[in-house]
């Protein structure tokens, strides 16, 4: 199969490209950087140097690759560092989820590609009411914290645009929180270091539920979605949604750090904002039943317990 991967050099792309090549597919990876284009070619892929925000450049790059499937893994999260400024820090990612999606859909349509598979997120976007573990049929948060609004709008735009694109079968993969090599929760990653320094406290009761996914399971689920030709929304998460108060001390212990500190919500609010408190105390996890059933996919790390112990590094 011929595929065009936008975001081929990011956390997902670095695991997905080699997996797809090993499976015998022809891959064109997009990047803005000549150096990274060289790395893609050295790995056995073809490379397209283009800016996702430049529609003409994307249309030309996708047309040249003539793929059956276009894969959208564009974000701009490498520099994310300040939870209090979440809205500002997500502006560039939101642009890739709006304008970037519009450009990729147009390019896919113009090139005659049949399908588009795009990255979305399972976690705080789900409504903070009802069950603690959400399926793809559950509603998204109708009243998100103010600093989450622009990002949720961009996520909804991406999902709607991909799912309704004329002439294209669209699949939206709502990934859980990434961990593992090349992510900020992997060996050498910045959040592991923050946890090691005890600068990632539990603020409030830590009842917010998070669903994790190892980065290699992100890659295998994405390849399964590409190969199966499914359309619709899929949660790509592990089997064990868990509250912050459970996974954070376990992760700290797994990396040999002291347990996280506990801070009451009123004291922590100025540090992480209302949206941060939501993540800590109200977020919902997600179910992977549909992905397992319809993609024929099983995560290698079904449990973050095992993944945090043995899967953080290469
Ligand atoms: N669900 C989750 O938990 C989740 C989801 C996403 C990311 N993250 C985390 O965020 C951190 C950063 O993610 P990342 O390593 O994937 O890096 P990133 O900086 O978010 O970049 C992702 C990819 O998008 C491409 N890209 C961005 N803007 C582009 C543009 N205008 N034109 C063409 N390509 C563009 C980049 O390509 P070039 O730079 O080569 O051009 C790169 O391949 C990681 O720690 C990751 O784990 C977490």
Please explain how this structure is put together.
The chain has 314 residues and is an alpha/beta fold. Helices cover 43% and strands 18% of the residues. It has a 7-stranded parallel sheet with strand order 3-2-1-4-5-7-12, with helices on both faces. Strands 6-15 form a two-stranded parallel sheet. A two-stranded parallel sheet has the order 8-11. Helix 2 (34-43) links the parallel strand 2 and strand 3. Helix 1 (13-22) packs across helix 8 (215-228), helix 3 crosses helix 5 and helix 9 runs parallel beside helix 12 (304-310). The longest helix has 21 residues, at 91-111. The radius of gyration is 19 Å and the shape is globular. It starts with a strand and ends with a helix. The mean pLDDT is 97. NADP nicotinamide-adenine-dinucleotide phosphate binds next to strand 2 and strand 8.
Broad structural category: alpha/beta
Query: Strand content of the residues, in percent?
Result: 15-25%
Q: Roughly how many Å is the radius of gyration?
A: 19 Å
Q: If you average the pLDDT, what whole number results?
A: 97
Bound molecules: NADP nicotinamide-adenine-dinucleotide phosphate
Order of helices and strands: EHEHEHEHHEEHEEHEEEHEEHEHEHH
Q: What are the low-pLDDT stretches, counting only 5+ consecutive residues below 50?
A: none
How far apart, in Å, are the first and last alpha carbons? Answer: 28 Å
- Helical element count? 12
């Amino acid at each position: 199969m011929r595929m065009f991967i936008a975001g081929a050099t990011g956390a997902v792309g670095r695991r997905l490209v080699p997996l797809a090549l090993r499976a015998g597919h022809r891959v064109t990876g997009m990047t803005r950087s000549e150096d990274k284009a060289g790395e893609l070619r050295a790995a056995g892929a073809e490379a397209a140097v283009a800016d996702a925000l430049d529609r003409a450049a994307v249309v030309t790059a996708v047309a040249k690759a003539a793929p059956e499937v276009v894969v959208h893994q564009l974000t701009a999260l490498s520099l994310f560092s300040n939870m209090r400024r979440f809205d500002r820090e997500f502006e560039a990612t939101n642009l890739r989820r709006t304008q970037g999606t519009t450009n990729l859909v147009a390019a896919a349509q113009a090139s005659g590609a049949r399908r588009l598979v795009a990255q979305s997120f399972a976690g705080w976007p789900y409504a903070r009411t009802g069950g603690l573990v959400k399926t793809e049929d559950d509603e998204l948060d109708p009243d998100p914290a103010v600093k989450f609004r622009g990002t949720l709008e961009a996520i909804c735009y991406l999902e709607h645009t991909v799912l309704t694109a004329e002439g294209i079968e669209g699949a939206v993969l709502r990934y859980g929180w990434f961990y593992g090599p090349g992510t900020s929760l992997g060996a050498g990653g910045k959040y592991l270091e923050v946890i090691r320094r005890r600068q990632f406290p539990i603020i409030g009761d830590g009842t917010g539920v998070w669903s994790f996914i190892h980065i290699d399971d992100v890659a295998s689920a994405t390849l399964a979605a590409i190969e199966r030709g499914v359309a619709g929304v899929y949660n790509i998460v592990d089997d064990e949604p868990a509250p912050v108060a459970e996974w954070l001390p376990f992760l700290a212990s797994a990396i040999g750090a002291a347990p996280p500190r506990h801070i009451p919500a009123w004291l922590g609010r100025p540090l992480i904002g209302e949206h941060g408190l939501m993540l800590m105390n109200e977020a919902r996890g997600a179910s992977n039943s549909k992905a397992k059933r319809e993609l024929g996919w099983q995560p290698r790390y079904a449990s973050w317990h095992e993944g945090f112990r043995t899967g953080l590094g290469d």
